[in-house]
Structure prediction request, 91 residues.
Amino acid sequence: MILHTLHSISGCLILLAIFAKIIIHYYLDKLYNKNIGLASILIMPLKYLKPYRSAVNSNHTLLKNVCNFMLPLAGIFLLTNLIIGLLIYSN
Prediction:
């Protein structure tokens, strides 16, 4: 029973990390006038899953680092989800 709960929680954390990365990436692009509005997410969605490489002010370096950390964090949650799923399947 607890494995099913952990599996659901890790799945939600995957989505949360990816959505947070997309939102932060979009915000940084909007802040530095590098996007074409909300349509940019629909036209080029994979752009927002790549690391943010543009230069930012020193005020926004922490936000850039958080943005770049979200995708590996989603990968860690995905691995956790797969391991828990295999544990559930083996029982």
